[in-house]
Amino acid sequence: MPRPNTNNPSPPATFRQELTLNPTPRSQSIVDSIYSQSQYSESSDSTAASSIDDAPVRRPLRPGVYVPTLTFFKADTEDLDLEIISRHAVRLANAGVAGLTTQGSNGEAVHLSHQERKLVTKATRNALDAVGFHSFPIIVGCGSQSTRETIELCREAMTSGGDYALVLPPSYYKAMYKPDSLVEFFKEVADASPIPILIYNYPGAVSGIDIDSDVIAELAKHPNIVGCKLTCGNTGKLGRIASSVDAASPCEDGSGFMCMGGSADFTLQTLVVGGSGVICGLGNVAPKACVKVVDLYKAGKMAEAKKLQAIVAQGDWAAISGGIVGTKSALETYYGYGGYARRPLPRPTAADEAKFAESFKELVELEKSLS
Questions:
Q1: Which of 39, 250, 284, 294 is 20 to 30 A away from residue 302, measured at CA?
Q2: pLDDT digit string (tens) for 17-53?
């Protein structure tokens, strides 16, 4: 029986490691200041931004594992739970990942208002800064259906503490696009964005639009386009792009362009063909395991890396199959937080929770065994 399509991995699901919900006094004071304010007033926007410089700070991207973080909500109201959002970000940083992505598919960006998007990124930036992760980069999902709003989201990402924008191609009017419409879209966004952008190729989320390697390699020549994320699962395409742009990798600096896989289940494959790493939802549940695959590859321990990759890939299939609902359920079972996705996504039944727990069990045991 053929394996189900895995082109939609990291976004729908999301995962993590061990989060201890006991913040240090420093981080607690920042968290308190963030989530004590109104979530929806414009006045809270300027208050939350008090620790964020007017000009963007350059936090370089480095090869490795990036995690598209979940957005957590209060169970009774579905309001943002900024306390858990902040602590989750710190837990992932402590696990050794290279950076975080807010407002991705795992982060339920499509369920958030502009104001909520800004609050999530600000809470993440302030929480990281509070515990010393000042140079830790944040990539912010900024996809929208118009060039104008996409640019607006990029600007809001910068003022909220984001360092880079991850941009999906618009797709609602796909049938009316001319051959060069998407190229023009990315160039116009890159021209106007105050922060560098990464191209996000995720056909499952954009009516099947699948940007080919020639187009991405051409767009990579733009000085404000610094990377790509391929959730299409096409490692051949990834290898062609990495070669043509001399992508950065864990072993070589290259040009600095970040050619990223979009799922943990092909981390090792991404690295072997010259990629820079992965932006993977599984990192929400098992960040140390995901990082370990990269570390073993970099150390030349291919047999060990291959063995670990197999366990990670199995766990990623649990995440892909269960989506955000399953990932949050696993977090709740194994780490005591996670909650639920916003409606209309369903809440898991008791039977669902038991199934998700079993699916993630091997991976979580591995995660907890890693120092």
A1: 284
A2: 333 333 333 334 433 433 343 444 444 443 333 334 4
pLDDT exceeds cutoff 50 at 133: yes
| Residue bearing tokens 């990629």 | 275
Give 60's contacts (C-beta < 8 A, 6+ positions apart): 137
The answer to whether the peptide bond before residue 344 is cis (omega within 30 degrees of 0) is yes
Query: Do the beta carbons of residue 23 and residue 96 sit within 8 Å?
Result: no
Rounded mean pLDDT of the chain?
A: 88
- Rounded to the nearest 10 degrees, what angle do helices 302-335 and 350-369 cross at? 130
Catalytic annotation, pick one of 118, 229, 237, 288: 229
Tally: H helices and E strands in the chain = 12, 8
Tokens standing for residue 365: 């045991």
Catalytic (active site) residue 118: no
CB atoms within 10 A of CB 77: 9
